[in-house]
Amino acid sequence: MADQADIERILRRLQGSAFRRKFSLGPVEQQLMRRHGAEVIDEHARRFVLERLAGANPPNDGRQTPWRGHPVFVAQHATATCCRKCLSEWHRIAAGRALDEQQVAYIVTVIGAWLDRQAMAGGDKPDPPGLFED
Questions:
Q1: What is the value of pTM for the model shown?
Q2: pLDDT for 42-60, tens place per residue?
Q3: Is 117 among the domain residues?
Q4: Could you give the number of structural domains in the chain?
Q5: How far is CA 73 from CA 68, 78, 130, 132, 134, in A?
């Protein structure tokens, strides 16, 4: 698996892309991060990767990751872990072959690192009125 320096290197490369750089967590995704915490969000990331990307030829590849609604979805687009084409281009994970456990762990780590940066950059902003009221 990639070490922390490798993760930092890929995140810096991704920031060089105008497309990838434009992604940030919206109020809904920030609230989900606060509500569930990093450990649960990492579990979600792992599940989404296994369900949507792990197969050799995922159904609807290139269109299987929503743009919003969950912090992992936003992170996947920001980190080019949203489809097999992006994984191949940015992370050198070949398409057409099922992901192995090490690749899944790497993808989840990249997503988690991006989300950690978002959490640090966003501070503790209050939720918009009416959002997720119990």
A1: 0.86
A2: 999 999 999 999 999 998 8
A3: yes
A4: 1
A5: 6, 9, 23, 19, 24
